[in-house]
Hints:
The chain is α+β, with helices and mostly antiparallel strands. It has helices spanning 6-12, 28-35, 67-90, 169-195, and strands at residues 14-16, 20-26, 97-106, 109-114, 123-131, 136-152, 155-165. It has a domain at 6-40 and 98-195: Thrombin, subunit H (Beta Barrel), CATH 2.40.10.220. Helices cover 34% and strands 32% of the residues. A six-stranded antiparallel barrel has the order 2-3-4-7-6-5. A hairpin with a 4-residue loop joins strand 5 and strand 6 (136-152). The protein is globular.
Amino acid sequence: xxxxxxxxxxxxxxxTLRAEVHCAVIDECEAMKEDQDDRLDRFVVQxxxxxxxxxxxxxxxxxGFDPNLIDFLIQIEDKLDRVLKLLASHEKNDENVxxxxxxxxxxxxxxMLCDTALKLGQILKxxxxxxxxxxxxxxxxxxxxRVNPVQNEGKQGYEAAVEFLNLHEDYKEWIITYVxxxxxxxxxxxxxxxxx
Length: 196
């Protein structure tokens, strides 16, 4: 029997992701060029503290930032996104840029719902927010490995599975931390419903 490393087990664990996912279809050359940039400087995140046992207290709400300031900045970001969408709607529609809805995520990839018919092997530049406290917005590259047509709110949509490409180790740690936090919340919710 093949022995599976501990890190490989962590990559396979998944959790629901209810977040808006901004995507752009790009070619491999563009992905390689952007991957060489220092992407970690683009987002407000706290550094990951690696240890044998990840404790929830290390990622406590607020985590060194003022929660009111974080709320304010998130509201500004959301408003700017809306303004940009309105401006973009007046321009020519770009089929290579779209917004989807996250379904689930793990250390190796994610699934999302979208209105765009993606093709197997396409490379996507994906931006999404996984944590509100502390604020963690990620920009990753992924390859479309599966596309299934689905009915989404009465209209034709697609469920796409994306495998992450060259995922930075800190990004992977944030995603895995998110997955385990969601699982703990689910377990607590089940316990509380049994006790009620």
